Structure formats: structure tokens, C-alpha cells
Amino acid sequence: MADIARLAGVSVSTVSRALAGSALVNAETRGRIAELARSLNYSINIGAQNLRLGHNNTVAVIVPYDPNTRQHLSDPFFLSLIGSLADALTERGHDMLLTRVDADRLDQAAQVFHTGRAMGIVLVGQWRHHDQLNSMAVQGVPFVVWGAQLPQQLYATVGGNNLAGGRLATAHLLAGGARRVLFMGDADLPEIGQRRAGWLAAHADAGLVADASLSRSVPFVTERIQQELALLQQHGVAFDALFAASDLMAMTAISALRQRGVRVPEDVRVVGYDDIALAEHFHPPLSTVRQPIADAGQALVQSLLSQLAGERRHSTQLATALVVRDSSGAARAA
Amino acid sequence: MADIARLAGVSVSTVSRALAGSALVNAETRGRIAELARSLNYSINIGAQNLRLGHNNTVAVIVPYDPNTRQHLSDPFFLSLIGSLADALTERGHDMLLTRVDADRLDQAAQVFHTGRAMGIVLVGQWRHHDQLNSMAVQGVPFVVWGAQLPQQLYATVGGNNLAGGRLATAHLLAGGARRVLFMGDADLPEIGQRRAGWLAAHADAGLVADASLSRSVPFVTERIQQELALLQQHGVAFDALFAASDLMAMTAISALRQRGVRVPEDVRVVGYDDIALAEHFHPPLSTVRQPIADAGQALVQSLLSQLAGERRHSTQLATALVVRDSSGAARAA
DNA sequence: GTGAAAGCGCTAACAC
DNA sequence: GTGTTAGCGCTTTCAC
Hints:
The structure is a homodimer.
Chain A: H1 2-8, H2 12-19, H3 27-39, H4 46-53, E1 58-65, H5 76-91, E2 95-102, H6 111-114, E3 120-124, H7 130-138, E4 143-146, E5 156-160, H8 162-175, E6 181-184, H9 190-205, E7 215-216, H10 222-234, E8 241-244, H11 247-259, E9 269-274, E10 287-290, H12 293-308, E11 316-318, E12 321-323
Parallel strand pairs in A: 1-2, 1-3, 3-4, 4-5, 5-11, 6-7, 6-8, 8-9, 9-10
Antiparallel strand pairs in A: 10-12
Helix pairs in contact in A: 1-2, 1-3, 2-3, 5-12, 8-9, 10-11
The first copy, chain A, binds a DNA duplex through residues 1-2, 10-14, 16-17, 20, 24-26, 29, 44-45, 47-54, 116.
């Protein structure tokens, strides 16, 4: 900026004002300065500007990783959510900083705020550390989490209505005639736990009692899913339907079932969760509970910004809808 | 930092040194300062630090969007690549800034560098603007692009060997007995163009001539793919195999074919490209050309860092491998 | 071993 | 309309 000032024969303040488009500076001078800046390929140094202005328009999106499996970022649902956040943030002119953090040390996410790198945080998934999140909220860190609403929650969440989603999926399977609906998913995670609660509730709604041995806690790992299915068969646990906690899990399970000669939906009806893009093109096309991903990014950003604007923290549940395709046995006219 | 200095009864310089772990400062003082910082939940302001130090360890990952389709970030391959980059950057202690840019104005990507927000750039896909990229390189912007190697290229690329990949896929289909292999993909994009060149080359290798009317330029949009297939059938263009430029396209096409009563692989053998996670669990399991995604993130970061370390720009081609599954008609023993 | 002072690149009173 | 000056939060000579 000093260079430009020298070349333009004015002071740096004038350059600063000109580049900011201030009406105070002579239009002619402004034009000359703009021209000069362009030819020098100069842009204002945002770091210095932020320092001076005392703010920042970067939002950190933090994706926890499971320290046990050390899995890479690969679930299509979360990846899509990141895409959706990128779009929503870009739209509003915010920068997005993508960071990973150990899922057992969610509170480390606060660093990115304390160091002034980001004005606020979107945390993808609350994992098992409700307490750490609450203490971040007490510290005054501005953040929203994608996840479930929990009792005693001091922070804002945005998420689908998992209870309703689980209920919808299970009710659909029961209505189709299934009587032994397997639930598969890591119920320690709050979102999945609520889907499981929906599974229970749907049974109760129908005047049935869910067989607890049909609820299987399985992490999102291909091998574990195949293993689990093998185990069930080996122990002679029969089931005529499967409600999987994610589409990825449903697809992996269907593929594993097929390898064991089990037909979907003839032998086992399947419903997944998320409605990822490929669900529709899977074979059989996957019945699933849709999570509104595009809205999710918008809602998360909206929630964070309103919090930053001083409004009270406010959690949102997005509507979920059952999408019936062939995997749950709905015979469709050709 | 000034607060801490006051509370600790020392000067800011001492606090700065203590927090940096300098051996110059008394161990006892250092401990006291560290303790104080922790209790105040204080962390160094990275923006100010960067300003003073004159550097920055943020890498911008820029994903162009097609201004025509205005599609959101959703292709599983690119999403995975972003995940892979996030992992590779986190591993090396770099921050990742995720940004989007109009694919017709790739040169705008340079802004993030000129404004000092990022030390370097990873551009995902080179699209149609080789020229803009070259001029960025001339300007001295440090960046790598995920894409194809092109003649007269002044910048670094990392990408799969698309020619070899296309050749492999097509040769496999021809070897299986196919004689009319449809190529589907937007050949204007350099990577896809090279896959198409591989399609041609494989025909030549086999002493055949590819029918030019079997090369269809189709963008990555579900409706367009279905449309194209409808059009082909309407015009009575027959084909006994399909080489799709991406798995997403292959899956969408298979689903569309199935709706028209065409069986895969019995009537049409299909090979995709990318080997996304779901390819294996698709039905029929998708034969495809594997792009080494995890390596891709590493290689991109590696290339950028070596460039920043002053080494000469260096492009890399990652090996691609054919993965034969059922969609190309390989009968597999049970 | 510690402090005082200058300066990274910018903006915003406050003069004129 | 434009320049002078101070200061955002930090690091680092240079003194002592």
C-alpha cells in the first residue's frame, strides 16, 4: 500500500480510503489508485485489515475424527454437508476454514476461536462429549453443532428430527409386514441413539415390543458391518427387515447380504438414513429417510450468524421425510 | 498478552518469549506465565503473529463451480478429494481454507494469495482455462492443480494418468467382446478429454476404429445423462458397452438403462472412473478405473510445499488401475 | 534474564 | 479532499 501511495503521489491514508471506495476521496484520484492497484496486482492484506478492524469473517467448520478408527473423512453424508456449508458460507461472503479434531477432545475446537482465526465454529457431530460442548458454551465460544438436541444443552444444535425419522422408517417397515426389524448403528452417538429411540417408539405405536437383541451397535466401518451380519447368521438370529442408521451402512449391508444369498427386499426389507445422492441409483433403489442437506448448511450458518449478532442461542430441528423406493419392498408399477 | 504481562508482573516481551518456549526466560517465570495463560483461556492471536512474522501456514483449497449449471458441491469424487486434502494438510499442521470460484474466472483464485490469506493454493480441476492458470503461474502465485498435464503448461499439476486409465477401461471392454463402446463425458475438460483419447487409443491398439458417433459429450448432470440415453435409443444408436467418465455418471446411467429394460452387464457392459467408495457396493458392483484418492491429497500438498520451498515446479501423474467387478461382465466364481 | 522500542500492513480519528 | 498520527497484538533487535 505504501508503494501505491508513493507511485500515486499521495499518502497511504488516501490509498486506504480510495480502495475502500470512500466518497471522501476525489473520484479522479480514486480511479488512478484503483488502476495502479490493478496493474500491480495488489490486494489489501486481509490479515492486517482484520487485526486493525478487530474482526474477521472466517467461519471454522470442524469435523471430528474418531481416534480409535482414525478413519479418514469419507462418509458421503458428512462430505455433502461440508459441500453444503461451503456453498452457504460462500454465498454470504464468509471464508470457510476446514479443520479436524480428535472426537474425544472436542473442546480443542475452541482454539480456533481463541486464536482469532475464526469468528465462530460449526462443529459437525457432537459425538460423545456433550459436557465438553457445554463448557465451551459457558466460555462464550460462538458455535453451532450439527447433531441432536439433548437435555441440559447450553449450546445450539441444528439437526434432523432423528426420533421422527427413526419412527417413520420403522413404522414403514412394520406396515409392510415386517415383524423382526434389525436396527444397526452406533447408538452411543446422540443422533443415532434418537433414531434407535424412534425404532422403539414405532414398535410401541404398533402395539409391538421390539426385540432388544435386534438392536446392534455397529460403528461406520465396512468390515464391522459384514462381521456383524455374519455373526447374526451364525447365531441364528433371524430378521426380516433392516433399519440402518445411514445410507452408507445400508448399502454396505445390502451388498454383504447379497453375498450371503439374502435377497433385498424379498427376504429382508431395508431402509437407510440420509438420502445421499446415490441412494436413488442404488440397486435396489434405496428407501431412506431424507435429511435436507442443502437446508442444513443454510440453517447452520444462519444459526451461527444470529448468535454472533447477539441473539439468544436457538436450536433447530429440520424436517425429515421418508422416501420410499424399492429396497423396502414397495412394489412399484413399471 | 498485555493483561498477562500485568498479572505476571513482567513485560509483554517476556510473555511473548515465555509462550514461545524461549530458553532465555527463567523456567519459573515461564511456568507462571503458562499457567496464567491457561487459566485465562488465552491463546496467541495468530493473525497478529502472522502479520509480524510475515508468513502464514494456511493453504487454500479452491473448488471451481460451473457458472452454467451452478451445481453445488456434490460429486463424491471431489468431495473425497477434499476430505483427503483436509487429512493431508491437518497431518502437516496446515490450516485449510475452502473456497469456491467461478470456473470461468479461475484467475480469481489468485486473490486468496494476494490478500495474504493463504500461502498457497490447491485448485481442484483445471476446467477450460489453461491460459488463466498459466498467467497465474507467471505472476508467481504458488499453486498446484488437480488435473491433466497439458502442453505448454507453466504450472504444476497432480492427477491420475487419464490416457492410460481410458485405455485400460476400453481395452477391457473390447477384450470382453464388446464392439460398440459408448464413451460418455464432457470431453472439453482436459482430464475427460484424455480419458476419451484413451478410448480411441484402445481401439487403435486392437486394430479397430472407434465410431465417432459413440462419443457423447455430456455434463455431470443427472437429467442430461438420462436424456442422452433416451436420445440414443430414439435414434437407434446401438452400443454393447459404456465407458463413463466418472462413477457417478456410470451409476446414473446404469440406473437409467435399467429403467429402459436394458440389463447390465448382459446387454451393456459398463466401466466407470474414480472407484468411489460406493462402486464396490453398487449393483452390479461397478468395474472402474481407480484413482488413488488418499495419495492424491498427499501428492498435491507435497507438490505445493516443495514449490513453496523454492524447488522447481514439478507435475506428477499417479498410477491408475483397472478394478474389474461385475458391471463389465466378468463372470466371477462365487 | 528482562524491558523498551520499533514495526509488520492496515484504518480512523483528528487536524488542516 | 488529503495528510499526520496512533494503535490493532504480536516478535525481535538492542540495551541493560
